[in-house]
Amino acid sequence: MKNLKKITVNLKERSYGIYIANNQFNCLGRLLKESNIGNHAVIISNSKIKKLYNEKIVKTLSKSSIKNDFIEVPDSEKAKSVSCLSKVISKIARIDVRKRIFVIALGGGVIGDLSGFAAAVYKRGIPYVQVPTSLLAQVDSSIGGKVAVDLQYGKNLLGAFYQPRLVFSDVSTVSSLNLRQLKTGLAEVIKYGVITDSQLFRFIELNYHKILELDKEALSHIIIQSSRIKARVVSQDERETKGIRTILNFGHTIGHAIETASDYGKSYTHGEAIAIGMICASEIACRLKICNQKTLCRIESIISMIGLPIHIKNAPLEKIMPAYLHDKKFISGKNRFVLPVNIGKVIIREGISERLIKNVISQRIKK
């Protein structure tokens, strides 16, 4: 399989490969056959993605003698509801008669989260693979085994750690994204630069125009580098028990609260909310004298230059704060934030003043 880049997530018996390709969907069937994952794929996706890629997926599966069924879900965060989860699991059960079934999550982060969680809880776990088609999913959500659905009280409150058997990222799928979707994925790449890789951050600063113009080399670089970082962190701390994986939550504490307060995607995509969350976390770090003003300005500047939001609209403080208080990252009643020291290094700080948090968020709300 020529020009197929493999990055390994090292988790002993749960180890798996992240395969990064460019217009090579024909390789997927062979990879699945070699993994001995099963003989019948349940493809979970939405109608838009089905129209774009289902023919390619079915063709590569057929060549490897793998049969398939398709389950269609809504094209929005609404797919990550308990009611949608229940329908998906019921459909999987109807398909699962004398077959060695497995799930293919074909789509972005929402579909990956929903499909992975359905696979985790059906029969106490069946195999699944991630075939991410958005930049955000390729660089972040498809890797690491965090799967979940939302509750009305907050994002990802019903979830599990359940690793895929493999991840197949084809860079060519990014070209089907609109500009807003592309930018939302870039927010997660910026996160990786801030938390652990100053060279990646500098690459974005110098090449964001190329990335937004879908330059294949620039896209491949950020996808490979981000996947390497995520694989390394997950390999060291799979279930976030050692404090290592926590750094991946940079920007997510306030970001998730903004998503919840704005009714999941009506005003903000995940990446847009995380972009504001990263600025808020950096502002908190600056006020606590953990980082300097220059670091804050670089983070805010690249987010602004890419065209991601730097202010909060349509999410009032009285909705953001209750959502923030439901955040999963609270430990023994104390909040927990990932804060930048400089570009490429962060620390984890607990028990930050609610007054400071409220003040920082308030200043970001556009009247």
From the N-terminal CA to the C-terminal CA, the straight-line distance is: 54 Å
The structure class reads alpha/beta
Enumerate how many helices there are, as a single number: 13
Total strands: the figure is 11
Q: Mean pLDDT across all residues, rounded?
A: 95
Which CATH first-tier class of the largest domain would you pick? Mainly Alpha
What sort of overall outline do the alpha carbons produce when their principal axes are compared? globular
Number of domains: 2
User: Do you know the CATH topology of the largest domain?
Assistant: Dehydroquinate synthase-like, alpha domain
Helix percent band: 40-55%
Question: Over all CA atoms, what is the radius of gyration?
Answer: 20 Å
- List unreliable stretches of 5+ residues: none
Q: Please write the string of helix (H) and strand (E) elements.
A: EEHEHEHEHEHEEEHHHHHHHEEH
> Mind summarizing the main beta sheet?
4 strands, parallel
Q: What proportion of the residues form beta strands (DSSP E)?
A: 15-25%
Query: Order of strands across the widest beta sheet?
Result: 4-3-5-6
Under CATH, the homologous superfamily of the largest domain reads Dehydroquinate synthase-like - alpha domain
CATH arch. level architecture of the largest domain: Up-down Bundle
